[in-house]
Task: structure prediction
Amino acid sequence: MRTHQLVLHWIEGQLSEGKLAVGGRLPAERTLAEQLQVSRTSVREAIRILEAMGVVRAGVGSGPEAGTVVISDPTAALGSALRLHVATQHLPVSDIVQTRVLLESWAASHARPDSPELTGAARLLAEMDADGIAVDDFLALDVRFHLALADAAGNAVVSAMMGSLRESITGYASRLTANLPDWDATAVRLRSEHHEILDAIRNDDGERAARLVASHIEGYYREAGVRHP
Amino acid sequence: MRTHQLVLHWIEGQLSEGKLAVGGRLPAERTLAEQLQVSRTSVREAIRILEAMGVVRAGVGSGPEAGTVVISDPTAALGSALRLHVATQHLPVSDIVQTRVLLESWAASHARPDSPELTGAARLLAEMDADGIAVDDFLALDVRFHLALADAAGNAVVSAMMGSLRESITGYASRLTANLPDWDATAVRLRSEHHEILDAIRNDDGERAARLVASHIEGYYREAGVRHP
DNA sequence: CCGCGCCTGTGGTCTAACCACACTCTAGGG
DNA sequence: CCCTAGAGTGTGGTTAGACCACAGGCGCGG
Result:
């Protein structure tokens, strides 16, 4: 076993045993290196991996923002991993879109009508209704709206996966707008579809919401010229 | 931006531009460090992250197995990320199981009856029917059977996510068997359910297959005493 | 012609030093 | 007495240079 993996396992063990929890701090790199009888280099490699996985955050200086503290940001890890694999062209974008439809339909049909996330979603829709909103701003709000819907279903894994799927194709989706024949017309349609989806969820009609979400997403990509299997 | 991120972006750029593809080799660490005008340490930190993400594999010595070569193993990345976050107890196991049901039902209903993966799945079932098979061997085959079903749907993202979900709770699932009142009886039931699922897929009855898969998984966890939302 | 070592280049690890940063303490002046 | 400017301390960030184990390739000797 390589040295940094030893450090990794030690930290994972501390997490599993509850000796290290979200918000807690790892020992300083030099201290940890001495404790585990390895070099600081190896400790740092392990911490880098944990950082990339969204498990810790490293901060310089001193004070509350400093040191290596345990966080929990699964979305970051999954997102960058997916993005990299999309770059290797071993994860087709069409598969990502298809998975997104699957997850998001499920979330829509399981979203709780009275969840606070839906209130946030409604606020986002109001912002998107503003006149003369820029395309990029609209898309940013759109992402947040869809994530809010996913969160409303109350499944952390589905939320994280949804977020990571979106993150991994953000650049791609934004380039897609160039393919649209008439952005303004599309924006009008997207707005009304958003409202329909939200209404369906609030009326506790999960099945309809799921159908609407699926056709909403697939319709967008079809209009932008993406093939679906 | 930190130094290792610069290296990371450079490599990701090479991947996106197609100058680096699966099977290709990265320049040697010392060479890359000189090219990018950074220290070898920083290069190594970037490579460690890519390795953890399942994007490269590092091998010592010389020959075909040596050097840092580009691979594509999204499952590894997602799996270890999920496992770590489960360790932080910010991803409830019940959410993972629920997501697994969602993905696997979808896969069962979209699996192509004539796909080669199903032949492999059938072979796995035959192995599981062997008399006196050890519990751990049975479970290992079970994992492979379910993954084969997921692969049969032909969506790389769903396959990777399924694999990572299974990996992240392997240890957990194996501990669960201790909760079962009568393993032998359970094993008999699981075997017959597996055959039913496979038959449904082969008869092109995706809807039935999805239902069977869902109750198969949920039934197992219920019997082992796991609560579902 | 074959086989045994040396050579080379790879990643793996370690040490030791320096930097930038941000808080904390302290000594000095008002 | 209070406030402020400075030194002090501990954090991660980065670098240079050295050594190790490994595995294939090459050349020399049998």
Notes: Residues 2-4, 38-42, 59-66 of chain B lie near DNA strand D (CB under 10 Å from a C1'). Strands of chain B lie at 56-59, 67-70.
